Amino acid sequence: MTQLHSTIARVTARIAARSRDSRQRYLDLMAREGDAHGDRSSFGCSNLAHAYAGAESDQPTMAFTRAANLGIITAYNDMLSAHQPYGRYPDAMKIYAREVGATAQVAGATPAMCDGVTQGYAGMELSLFSRDTIAMSTAVAMSHAMFDGMALLGICDKIVPGLVIGALRFGHLPAIFVPSGPMPSGIANKDKQKTRQLYAEGKVGREELLKSEMGSYHSPGTCTFFGTANSNQMMMEMMGLQLPGSSFVPPNTPLRSALTRAAVHRLVAITRKGADPRPMAQMVDERAIVNACIGLLATGGSTNHAIHLPAMARAAGIILDWGDLDELSSVVPLIARVYPNGSGDVNHFHAAGGMGYVIGELLSAGLCHGDILTVADGGMAAYATEPHLEADTLSFRAAPADPLDPAMLAKVATPFAPDGGMRLVQGNLGRATFKSSAVDPSRWTIEAPARVFDTQEDVQAAFKAGELERDVVVVVRFQGPRANGMPELHKLTAPLGVLQDKGFKVALVTDGRMSGASGKVPCAIHATPEALSDAAGRPGPLALVRDGDVVRVCAHSGTLEVLADLSGRAAAVPPPPAQGMGRELFAMYRMAADGAEQGGSAMLALAGL
After folding, report:
1. What sign for the dihedral angle of Cα 546, 552, 553, 557?
2. For residue range 52-64, what is the model confidence (pLDDT) as tens digits?
3. Which sign, positive or negative, has the C-alpha torsion 72, 73, 79, 84?
4. Which residues lie closer than 8 Å to 114 by C-beta, 6 or more apart?
5. Is there a single domain that holds both residue 360 and residue 490?
6. Where are the beta strands (DSSP E) in 103-148?
7. 329 and 465 share a domain?
8. Does the residue 581 lie in any domain?
9. What is the per-residue pLDDT for 20?
10. 183-205 residue pLDDT tens
């Protein structure tokens, strides 16, 4: 086995040392939970009867044998294209469980919202906190304590992190993620982006824009760009929480069905009642979290995971910060270019070698932990393979040793970029994330006068009025977790891209979010402390910036600063809390949320995790 890179070993050791006490508390809790809730037969007969009443033909197996019973947590709805295929999964999974003498029940469902639908509108302000709601929904489902393993059906942005967080609090049980796969490729990504910019410039109408968008997002399956949803799938493989090569197999295909069947069979095998128990608490350790970070960096994945990774880690008693991501990024090269960082989408990525190639290349270079406990036998080496069907039999073969498309995948020795492209920038404006992998190096340093806004709608209005036709750092504040739930500001991508294409030096600084679709404009995002005052009444530095202040953002030096004296300035008055679209119901989350670097979670903060 290739020796682990010294920087990765050092960062992992630092995380483990920092997390020693909290990790031990978590493992002790999981041991107690396993002792207390490891066998449903200790429940009273009335309790059991309630749990078995809806199981019909499975009742005798549940009641009178010691067969494993799997709890299915589903994020199904048929408004999300990625989750629409899940409607048929539970019935099939029950059959697959019976094939190996086990049973399965839908333990519960979680909400699943789509940032692509709510982008730029009021509903987006519920998005980040839907992750906490999903985690708690998972806990409610599992609280019946009737299950020996968790089958987790979820793909998109906050849904997978929420499922991970919730499932980890039941980490005395094994868990496996069961994906559904991406939709077929639609129109070329460069054509879609061109139409968006033409619309932003007023050169094409709404009808042409809608036709373009529907040519891209057109059928059941995950959206095919490498945003947060597909980054989730990549990370579940890097953490060993789903079957090798299962992320990007299309829905409603024989291979997808075979993988779902194999996932159920494998989950039964790794329960306490199976031959090879693998509790989730043991699987998700510091090495698995570091592997997820490495996968994110090597593939140029979504910046949203600078928030989600610390939150998921906390649920397992592990403390991860942006300094860890930044140091890992310095040694993990970018070896995949998937739209928006390249021209091809995840279907092209999968065809070119996909996750099997990426993991094999990282392992051979000592750039990820190969010895983690995974749902598959053989540790991470098992993930340097790809699934295929031969005469209806599922097997796994070695992934390509070389890229099948050199424009999409590269060797570690000759990467697209020498680092992972997710950098920490910091200074008198706080700490923020800068995704350099999508930005031309000539734009990694921007120094220009600020134009300060409190909403993205105000930015759009200023753009349409021609007020931003100059070198400018656009500062959008009061977009953090405490202010309004930290929405994505993806609708700013097109106008800022237009300004950049006109030759202006443009950057965005915000305490809001941008996803893996953030595009080519340099952005210092997730700025923390956020502008809104914290619980002690201290405003973040963004609340002190004024129009005309010169702001410097530099990914080379890791700088985020305003070249002005902020002392003595009064903080800007934040907009009043918004109402409507259910936002008022989430006031509790906003009031209790912690910083973006800690995960932007009210639930974890209140739980003391």
Report:
1. negative
2. 999 999 999 999 9
3. negative
4. 79, 80, 156, 157
5. no
6. 103-109
7. no
8. no
9. 98
10. 998 887 677 778 877 887 788 88
Please compute, for residue 271, the number of CA atoms within 13 A of its CA located in the half-sphere on the CB side: 28
Q: For all residues of the chain together, what is the average pLDDT?
A: 94
Q: Tell me the residue type at 506.
A: V
Rounded to whole angstroms, how far apart are CA atoms 275 and 293? Answer: 31
Q: Same domain for 438 and 391? A: no
Asked, for residue 461, whether it belongs to a domain, the answer is: yes
- The DSSP secondary-structure symbol of 558 reads T
Task: Identify which of 241, 96, 214 has the alpha carbon closest to the alpha carbon of residue 155.
Answer: 241
Cα separations in angstroms, 242 against 25, 131, 155, 313: 26, 20, 12, 18
Q: Show the domain range for 501.
A: 422-575
Residues placed in the known binding site = 156, 223
Q: Is the pTM of this model over 0.85?
A: yes
The per-residue pLDDT for 518 is 54
Distance CA 443, CA 427 (A): 19
Task: Please tell me the total number of residues recorded for the chain in this structure.
Answer: 609
Per-residue model confidence as pLDDT tens digits over 18-77: 999 999 999 999 999 999 988 888 899 999 999 999 999 999 999 999 999 999 999 999
Q: Which residues are annotated as a binding site for [4Fe-4S] cluster?
A: 156, 223
The most distant pair of C-alpha atoms in the chain lies apart, rounded to whole Å, by 75
Check whether 134 has a pLDDT greater than 60: yes
The tally of domains found in the chain comes to 2
Vertex 228 angle, CA 158 and 524, to 5°: 100
Show the tokens assigned to 451: 């134009």
Q: Is residue 241 part of a domain?
A: yes
Cβ of 607: how many Cβ atoms within 10 Å? 11
Q: Which amino acid, residue 321? A: D
Burial of 408 (0-12, 13-18, 19+ CB in 10 A): buried
What b/e sequence results for 58-84 when a residue is b if at least 16 CB atoms lie within 10 Å of its CB, and e otherwise?
beebbeeeebbbbbbbbbbbeebbbbb
Burial class (CB in 10 A: 0-12, 13-18, 19+), 443: middle
